[in-house]
Structures are given as C-alpha cells and as structure tokens.
Amino acid sequence: MSSKQEEIITQYQQESSVQVVKTMARKKVNKGLILIESFAFLIAIIFFGIPFYFVIINSLKDSGGAAELNLSWPDNFQFLQNYQEVLTLNDGIVLRAFLNSSLITISSIIVIIFICSMAGFILSRRQGMAKKLNYVILIGLMIPPTIVPTIWLLQKIGLFKTFPGIIFLESALQFSFACLLYTAFVATIPKELDEAALMDGCGPFSLFFKIIFPLLKPVTSTVIVLSSIQIYNDFENMLYFFPGADNATVQLTLYNFTGIYGTSYHLLFADVLLISIPPLVLFIFFNKKIVDGMTAGAVKG
C-alpha cells in the first residue's frame, strides 16, 4: 500500500471519528431537550391541566357533589341540567353577557386595527426627535387611567354606561401596545416599496391600504388575538365604566354568581367553563400566529 493510500485512509478514519463524536453529542443534546420538554409539560399539566380538569369535573356534578370541591368522579352526572340552568338564569343573563362581550370585543378590535395600523406606519417612517418623543408618549399611555376622572369625563361627553363609551375606552387601553407592535413590524418593510408606489402614482391612502396593510397580516393576527383575550376577560373596566343589569358582560356574570349563588358551585363552575371556551379556542388555533407576529418585528427597528 502506497503512502498516498495510507494518508487517504487515515484522513477518512479521522473524519469518521469526528462524525461519530458529533452524532453522539447531538444525541446527548436531543436527550437533554427531551428531558426539558417533558419537565415543562409536566409543570404545565400541574399548574394548568389539573385546575382545568377541576373546573370541568365539578361542573358536571350536582350541588352536593360540587360543594365538596374535590377531583373525584361525579356520582350523579348533571351535564345538561347544569348548563341549561346557567343559560336560563335571570332571563338568560349569561347569553346577554356573551352578546355584549362579543359586541364590545369585535368593535374594539376593528377600531384598534384601523387606527393603530396607520399610526404604526407613520411612526415607523418618521425620523428624528419626534419619533423618540412618540415612543415616550406611547409608553406613558400604558399607565392605566384613574377611575374617578375617567367616569367624570365619560359622563360629561354622554358616553358613561354606553356601548360606544366602553368600546372607545377598551380600544384606547390597547392603543399603546398595538402601536408598538405595528411600528416594529412596519420597520421590516423596505422604504423603497413606499417610494416605488408613490412614483407609480399611488396616493397616501392607496399606498397604505393597497400596498402596506396586506403585508401586516402576521402582526394584525397577533393584535387580534391578544387584544380580544384582554378585552373579553376585562372585569374592572366593565364593572366601573359599564355598570347596569342590561350591560352585563361575561366576567361580571361570575361576580354576580359569587354574590347570588355563592353555594351553587356546580353552576359557578359551569359558568366558568362556558366563558372560558372562546378565548381558549382562539388561543389554541392562533398561538403560532401570535409568536410569528411578535417576533417578525424583532429583525429590524
């Protein structure tokens, strides 16, 4: 065997050894990741799965069984009876609450997307000290408003305890976060696209709604999901700024249940499960879009 052949064989053996070492290291890393994922899954089951199971199983029991507040299997299933009773209590207040919450949430989301998408586009394209000042103002707007002055203001303009009033209020509370998301995302869109559209005769509104806005689908999905869950689950603002029996929302039904039907745990858990379904379904089906929309703007800007 020539020296050249021996050199080739030696080089091949060395490369094979390196590949074996890399493969073993990769397997160790994969095993470590599997252990971490398994541990995280176990923690999720303990902190989220068990409480959710607790709510479901007690919503199927009768009054006496649910009052024991345990994880045991129901001796007497009352699935249809419990949920039917919840939906018909107080002339169907839960159904009215669903309708009110849906109307407020959908209307607020439309306002948020319409205003914040345009604001984010303008803020992203603006340069100089004005841009920094706008960021400071947006961050300052994240501070929750005080209750009494807000009630006074809504009363003065005739929007207290009205749907337009609570819709504008909920929208305003989401403006800062939504504007920051849109601003970061628009920064990833090349300015040359704006210039090319303007050179082709596009006006400002056509530029935004026909060129820019269709590109904002990922971040718009994120804004829709996060803001919808926040508004739908809002309790404090609904309690203070939208009071009244006819203005009930889903979170206020829980508040009423604890006061009126404090010992009817089977009905309370049934109501909890009913009002938890919409945001849970929304999050399950759109969780990937949430991550995509929030990370898309991290590349630039």
TrEMBL record:
Subcellular location: Cell membrane
Membrane topology label: Multi-pass membrane protein
An annotated GO BP: transmembrane transport
Keywords: Cell membrane, Membrane, Transmembrane, Transmembrane helix, Transport
Pfam family, one: BPD_transp_1
Top-level division of the source organism's lineage: Bacteria
Principal subcellular localization: membrane
Record-annotated membrane-spanning stretches: 32-56, 103-123, 135-154, 166-187, 207-232, 265-286
Stretches assigned to the ABC transmembrane type-1 domain: 98-286
GO cellular component terms, semicolon-separated: plasma membrane
Family indicated by similarity: Belongs to the binding-protein-dependent transport system permease family.
Descriptive protein name: Carbohydrate ABC transporter permease
Species annotation: Aquibacillus salsiterrae
